[in-house]
Specification:
- By secondary structure, this protein is an alpha+beta fold.
- About 50% of the residues lie in helices and about 10% in strands.
- It contains eleven helices and five strands, in the order αααααββαβαβαβααα.
- Strands 1-2-5-3-4 form a five-stranded mixed beta sheet.
- Helix 5 crosses helix 11.
- The longest helix has 29 residues.
């Protein structure tokens, strides 16, 4: 018993070494972590700098590597290549380069390409209406929904409190039918009414819906637009284009919008108004935007080829 008691006392004296080793291990891990977080990631630091500058309203000029200069008007983005082909599928040749680009850049390039495609549809509609002498009859706008062709005007398209298409409205719809029919996007016909109460319909909801339906029927029955790519909706007087009850406001709000819907993601569509604003303000031209896209696409293709040969 005496010998066993002596052995137990000897083991108790060496336990401090185990605790000491544990403490040293923890300290070593702590120093490794402190060293790791002390190394500055230049790329992430640059992203943080740009984000803070934009957040505080500072101008940040983004330079496209390989381009001839800064892209004004879209300062918070860099131009990157188009990643979709004509059929809307990802271009495998460019997909590998995605790793070199931020998601923000990829989204902006997709928005720029989407804006160009919507502009092409607008140009086709404009040309058709111009050939028929109707170029001044409609209004155009590109926003997060897509391309909006506004059939707006006092008695040009609809009489007051009436949903029947005027002769001019029928000519405009018939002329627009070919460009609308020859593209693949969904089309939404959105009817509106001004705030004056209707006497021919129970409410302005029915009046606006009837106007949208009349335009839809003309597109389908006379224009040959497939019924599965077009729909109609009435918004009553809930979404006025112009506030107020002046004659001009009442006339502007008696309208139908033909919306060529964007098929891009919500994130990409949200960038379309920014591009439209830059173009409207003149800080960016369509030629500049297209040139930068082409340059970035060429750069991405070169990067892809270099990656394939290495």
């Amino acid at each position: 018993m005496t010998r066993k008691h002596q052995e137990e006392e000897h083991e108790n004296h060496e336990r401090w070494a185990v605790s000491y080793a544990d403490m040293m291990t923890v300290l070593l891990a702590l120093f490794i972590v402190l060293y790791a977080i002390s190394v500055v990631d230049k790329e992430k630091f640059e992203e943080l700098r740009v984000s803070l500058a934009v957040g505080f309203g500072q101008d940040v000029t983004s330079m496209l590597v390989g381009s001839s200069g800064p892209l004004n008007g879209v300062e918070s983005f860099q131009i990157a290549p188009d990643f979709t082909g004509v059929d809307g599928e990802a271009n495998p040749q460019l997909t590998d380069t995605n790793l070199e680009l931020s998601q923000e850049t990829i989204d902006f390039l997709a928005a720029a390409r989407e804006y160009e495609q919507l502009s092409d549809i607008q140009a086709q509609i404009e040309e058709s209406l111009r050939n028929s002498g109707l170029e001044a009859a409609v209004q155009y706008k590109i926003d997060s929904r897509g391309l909006i062709v506004g059939m707006v005007g006092s008695a040009v398209f609809f009489a007051a409190d009436d949903a029947q298409l005027t002769t001019t409205a029928q000519r405009v719809v018939d002329t627009m039918s070919a460009p609308v029919r020859n593209q693949s996007r969904q089309v939404s016909i959105e009817g509106h009414a001004n705030v004056l109460p209707s006497s021919n319909y129970p409410t302005n909801w029915e009046l606006s819906s009837a106007r949208a339906t009349q335009v839809l029927r003309r597109f389908v029955e006379s224009g040959g637009v497939p019924g599965n790519m077009i729909s109609a909706v009435g918004y009553g007087d809930a979404r006025p284009a112009v506030q107020g009850t002046t004659d001009a406001a009442l006339s502007e709000n008696r309208r139908v919008d033909v919306v060529i819907q964007s098929s891009a993601s919500e994130t990409v569509r949200a960038l379309l108004p920014q591009i439209a604003q830059s173009l409207a303000e003149g800080s960016l031209t369509a030629d500049q935007l297209h040139a930068e896209i082409e340059a970035a696409q060429a750069q991405a293709q070169a990067m892809s080829q270099e990656g394939g040969s290495s």
